[in-house]
Design brief:
250 residues, alpha/beta, two-stranded parallel ribbon
């Protein structure tokens, strides 16, 4: 929403965004034309943190691969009690880097700490209670890197090819923020070439992404977890969102 269409809404007083982010609204235009903009903060924090942790645990343990061994009958036919290929790692003792340490980032940090991880955070204004580092250090030291940044001119494409090149070969990258905060083509190339170990994504620069999107050709790989922008949408979160929208209107 911007000048190209809001100019026709001569009686508009309030835009209620059914989301936390409002990067798709020209707030400067609204401010100068007396249009209120109200988002919904915090309604999906636990939900997004939950999916972030689920993606990390699934990717680090190769859970879909092991599940498929029993689902397709190969475990039954194999006659071997233990299947341990592909090799997987414990999450305890790993370094979990968090890009964007707002409500969701802090919730993910609590989960990561509970799982035994060292937690690093990249935040524009460092805070107490967490080890804050610059983005380059975050990329170099993280075994798991999860992204929780809002989309703005400052963050668009912030995880670019140069930063992706700093990641560890076995690192897992998770983006549940906005697709455009990363270079999606560079992430896809890094996964294909083995320069990162796993990729979990719930958000895309184009939604739904098309067959020409760099992730489309990777969608069936065992070390990628792509979900259809669903991290915000538990039943509980949707109820909270609607309640807050009503309060914003009132």
């Amino acid at each position: 929403l911007g000048a190209h269409n809001l100019k026709w809404a001569t009686r508009l007083k309030l835009i209620c965004v059914a989301a936390t982010g409002y990067d798709n609204i020209d707030v400067d235009y609204c401010r100068t034309h007396g249009i209120g903009v109200a988002n919904v903060v915090g309604y999906s924090t636990d939900n997004v943190a939950q999916l972030t942790a689920a993606m990390a645990l699934s990717l680090i343990t190769h859970l879909p691969t092991y599940n498929r061994m029993t689902a397709d009958g190969s475990y039954t036919r194999g006659g071997v009690a233990n299947c341990l290929t592909p090799a997987y790692h414990e999450i305890a003792g790993k370094t979990w880097g968090i890009a964007g340490y707002g409500n969701i980032g802090r919730a993910v940090g609590k989960i990561a700490s509970a799982l035994g991880c060292r937690v690093l955070a990249y935040k524009r204004t460092p805070v107490e209670g967490v080890e804050c580092v610059d983005l380059e250090t975050l990329c170099r030291e993280s075994d798991i890197l999860s992204i929780h940044l809002p989309l703005s001119d400052a963050t668009r494409g912030i995880l670019d090819a140069d930063h992706i090149a700093l990641l560890k070969p076995e690192s897992i990258v998770i983006n549940v923020a906005r697709g455009a905060v990363t270079d999606e083509a560079a992430l896809a190339e890094a996964l294909e070439s083995g320069r990162i170990g796993g990729l979990g994504v719930d958000v895309y620069s184009t939604e739904p992404f098309g067959e020409d999107h760099p992730f489309y050709r990777l969608r069936d790989r065992d070390n990628i977890c792509l979900t259809p922008h669903m991290a915000w949408g538990s039943i509980e979160a949707r109820r909270r969102c609607l309640s807050e929208i009503i309060l914003n209107m009132e």
